[in-house]
Amino acid sequence: MARRATPEVNAGSMADIAFLLLIFFLVTTTIEKDKGIARQLPPIEPPTEEPPIIKEKNLFIVNVNKSDQLLVEDELMELKDLRLAAIEFLDNGGAVAGSPEYCSHCKGDRSTSSSDNPDKAVISVQNDRLTSYKMYISVQNELVAAYNFLRNRESERLYGWKFTEMKKNVADGNFSGDEEIIKSKLENIQKLFPLKLSEAEPKKSGL
Amino acid sequence: MSKFTKKKSGELPAVNTASLPDIVFMLLFFFMVVTVLRNNNLLVLNQMPKADQVEKLQKDRSVYIFAGKPSARYQDKYGREGKIQIGDKYTDITSLKFALEEARRKLRPELQEKVMVALKVDKETNTGLVSDIKQELRELNMLKLIYITAQGNELDQ
């Protein structure tokens, strides 16, 4: 007798099984896309070192109290006005023309009572321990936005592209041209408006 | 039986579904490959605040710290105060350093120097807890950190 042909396995339900698995993985997949505000912490200073003296006019003090209210330069302020106030402060360029500290790329009021130049200008954020994290991040976000606005303005003037967009492109690896040149250009812009955010130790609540 | 009788006209032939399993399998493999099963079982509430001036996180060199109130099912046991979580368990502020060292050692050796700390903190937490964490990070000399945020802007609401 010739051998009997083995009956073919019915594969009709294979699609159903595969669909089930597919739906399971579809549901469990979380394509994580974590983004955030990056920050560099200051290293711990040796105790002997004298803290640098900063002139009052070069300091922009942002105070957040425990009920999330903002006190900017001794005035009550809404969060939405913070960005503009910070831009005005950083972009002021109060140093007199001709002095070594003169800021040629500033477009601000050049008032003598505000910051000399962006390199000198320091924004100091003081939090209460009971400030909500939401408020803290919002304040940081607005201040970074102020810096980004100024950096974008300068990079568009000098190179014709936006600082934030180019930085993102470099990080993603999609841009045309020499990476080294673009990186040095980015650093150049950062030097024009260096991020100088100081955070004091948060005060005890109720003081 | 003539070879030339016409087939029944008008009826559409059935669509051939033989390649359907192949297509579905391809999709299946795609999702199997990209799926990351969560390796952190969240013990704390974790609703991130919104921000729009953000940068991307480089995942291969980061250590996660979660903080916030304990999730609803742990609140009976651990109370409602803000808590820190690293890996799969609650961590006290005093033992934060050991937990972080441990987490750092799990990274690829060449990236351990460039370690970045990703802070995933619930928006209702007090800033005090965050600054305690930051103080510990400074003492550990892990100075790069990133506050993970959700997309949007708190001002818009």
Commentary on this structure:
- The complex is a heterodimer of chains A (207) and B (157).
- Chain A is built from 5 helices and 6 strands, in the order αββββαβαααβ.
- Chain A is an alpha/beta fold and 207 residues long.
- Chain A has a domain at 56-199.
- Chain A starts with 13 loop residues before the first helix and ends in an 8-residue tail after the last strand.
- With 157 residues, chain B is of the alpha/beta class.
- Chain B has a domain at 50-156: Nucleotidyltransferase, domain 5, CATH 3.30.420.
- Chain B has helices spanning 20-34, 75-78, 96-105, 127-140; strands at residues 50-51, 55-56, 62-68, 83-86, 89-91, 116-121, 144-151.
- The relative contact order of chain B is 0.19.
- The chains are: A alpha/beta (207), B alpha/beta (157).
- The interface between A and B is large, with 53 and 53 residues.
- Strand 1 (35-40) of chain A pairs antiparallel with strand 7 of chain B.
Most strands sheet of chain B: 6 strands, mixed
- What gap, in angstroms, lies between the N and C termini of chain B? 79 Å
The number of helical runs of chain B is 4
Distance between the termini of chain A: 101 Å
Order of helices and strands of chain A: HEEEEHEHHHE
List keywords for this structure.
heterodimer, A: 207 residues, alpha/beta, five-stranded mixed β-sheet, 5 helices, 6 strands, 37% helix, 13% strand, elongated, B: 157 residues, Nucleotidyltransferase, domain 5, 4 helices, 27% helix
Summarize the model shown.
The complex is a heterodimer of chains A (207) and B (157). Chain A is of the alpha/beta class and 207 residues long.
